[in-house]
Design brief:
The protein is mostly beta strands. It contains 1 helix and 9 strands. The strands form 2 sheets. A 5-stranded mixed β-sheet has the order 1-2-9-6-7, with no helix packed on it. It has a 4-stranded antiparallel β-sheet with strand order 4-3-5-8, with no helix packed on it.
C-alpha cells in the first residue's frame, strides 16, 4: 500500500477516534414539566428555571394553564425562564432555543425549535427569556417533551 494511502487512513481513524472521545456538554434544569436537558454552551450559560403555560381561548376569554394542554382552542405555548452568564466574562450574544417534541409510536418527533436572543451580557448577569410556539406555526399540536440548546458568540 502506498505511503500516502496509509497516512490518509491513519488520519481518518484518528479523527473518528477523537470524535468519539469528545463528549457533548449536557446539564439539566427543572420547571413546570419536570427535569429537562440543556445542551450546548452549558459552561457559559445556565438556565436557572423555566415554566410552561398553554394559552387557551374560550368564549373570547383568554385562559393561561400550567403545562402543555392541547385541544382545538389552544392558541399557543409559552416557555419562560431565567438564565445566567456563568462564563466569567462578557458575552456579546446568547441564544436560547427550545425544541418541542411529540411522541409518535416509540419515537420522539421534533416539531419546531424556537429561540430567544440576548445581546451584551455581563459576567454573572441574569435575564428572563420567553419563547412562544403559536397555533399557526408548523406542526403545532400536542407536545410531549421539550429540551433547551444554549449558544454564545
Amino acid at each position: 500500500m502506498p505511503r500516502r494511502a496509509v497516512l490518509i487512513i491513519a488520519c481518518v481513524v484518528s479523527l473518528i477516534f477523537l470524535a468519539g472521545c469528545m463528549e457533548e456538554k449536557v446539564s439539566y434544569t427543572y420547571g413546570t414539566v419536570g427535569k429537562v436537558e440543556v445542551r450546548g454552551d452549558v459552561d457559559k450559560i445556565t438556565i436557572l428555571n423555566y415554566s410552561v403555560e398553554s394559552v387557551i381561548y374560550k368564549n373570547y376569554t383568554m385562559q393561561m394553564v400550567k403545562g402543555f394542554v392541547y385541544h382545538d382552542k389552544t392558541h399557543r405555548y409559552e416557555i419562560r425562564g431565567i438564565a445566567r452568564n456563568i462564563a466569567g466574562e462578557n458575552i456579546s450574544k446568547a441564544k436560547i432555543c427550545v425544541t418541542f417534541y411529540r411522541q409518535e409510536s416509540k419515537m420522539l418527533k421534533p416539531l419546531v425549535s424556537k429561540c430567544h436572543i440576548k445581546q451584551k451580557i455581563s459576567p454573572n448577569e441574569t435575564w428572563t427569556f420567553k419563547v412562544k410556539y403559536l397555533f399557526s406555526d408548523p406542526g403545532f399540536g400536542k407536545v410531549d417533551k421539550i429540551d433547551f440548546w444554549v449558544e454564545v458568540s
